Amino acid sequence: xxxxxxxxxxxxxxxxxxxxxxxxxxxxxxxxxxxxxxxxxxxxxxxxxxxxxxxxxxxxxxxxxxxxxxxxxxxxxxxxxxxxxxxxxxxxxxxxxxxxxxxxxxxxxxxxxxxxxxxxxxxxxxxxxxxxxxxxxxxxxxxxxxxxxxxxxxxxxxxxxxxxxxxxxxxxxxxxxxxxxxxxxxxxxxxxxxxxxxxxxxxxxxxxxxxxxxxxxxxxxxxxxxxxxxxxxxxxxxxxxxxxxxxxxxxxxxxxxxxxxxxxxxxxxxxxxxxxxxxxxxxxxxxxxxxxxxxxx
Length: 297
Description:
This protein is an all-alpha fold. It has helices at residues 2-56, 58-62, 77-108, 111-126, 129-148, 155-180, 183-191, 196-207, 209-225, 228-233, 251-259, 265-296; strands spanning 67-68, 73-74. It has a two-stranded antiparallel ribbon. Mean pLDDT is 87; it is low at 1-12.
């Protein structure tokens, strides 16, 4: 009887261990698939881009200021500058609003309002890019044009629109990070005499820095990789902007506008431009990881 009982108890444990082993294999294959996809993208981009950049010349390609494919001039420096300017301004506009909104929703927002705000922000994240572009064209562009006495299409309009587009990412990720901080930190600060605002900003936010930085990095990735909305209101001028009201063209918009009809060297140059964009994103993520490692030390 004891032997029968022992076998009966071991059987479920064996099945559980077997199931865990199978699921670990499935999870591992999924992770390997993701790594394989990234690797294939890298191989495709760099195999096509390196010979093209070598043919044109690295300095002429990266630092050239003239983009005229018909006469064989492929300088992408104006698009690089445009991408950096638009992304930087979008972060300047969007990050403070996004982080402060996340703080409000996590600690100060009444529950009835929170039940209203959360779906609205999630809906904002799901709006298609082209719809944002139409909104910018009808609402933002006329206002900017009236203020600066221009057409309204340019760097400032595109930055404001991108700031709106990255808000949901920053708010939702920051809110989750803030709420993940143990409530005991907040309650301990209150018990020591801190006001609610000081407890949040000097205790909770300090512990949630890593998640907030992650939201900013995701926002930067969204802003620098956006194309459709920027095409509509950026002005699409392949020049280095001298003021915030000037027209501008980013790397993504340049690729989208010309890839449909590009052939030969022109097409290869556009692929090489995507490598520059890829390196930007990779550099941003590496800087973020280095910053996290430095904070851990």
